[in-house]
Amino acid sequence: MARKIADVLLGEELVLRDIEPRDLAAAIEPIILEELMVEDRINDEVREMLSGHERNIDGSQMDYRKLFDLTKRKIIEERGIIV
User: Fold this and answer.
1) Contact assessment for residue 49 and residue 71, using Cβ atoms and an 8 Å cutoff
2) Residue 41 has pLDDT above 80, yes or no
3) Which of 7, 28, 41, 42 could crosslink 2 through cysteines, CB 3.0-4.6 Å?
4) How many C-beta atoms surround the C-beta of residue 13 within 10 A?
5) Spatial contact of 3 and 25, defined as CB atoms under 8 Å apart
6) Radius of gyration (Cα) for the chain, nearest Å?
């Protein structure tokens, strides 16, 4: 994926031509990985938040999945994250 992005950036002359495609791809790769991990970290955070309320969730009419999704959406919205 990083190589394709590098090829497009170079092909459209959106970056300087004095960089090798493989070097540009190597620079792009950790950025892509970091972006992909954002949602995983949010999921972990939501799980941790809800774990303190498991008894209340289990003993009520609340649906864990709905509560998880609502909490996740709220965090994403508050932080202005695009997933």
Assistant:
1) yes
2) yes
3) 28
4) 8
5) yes
6) 20
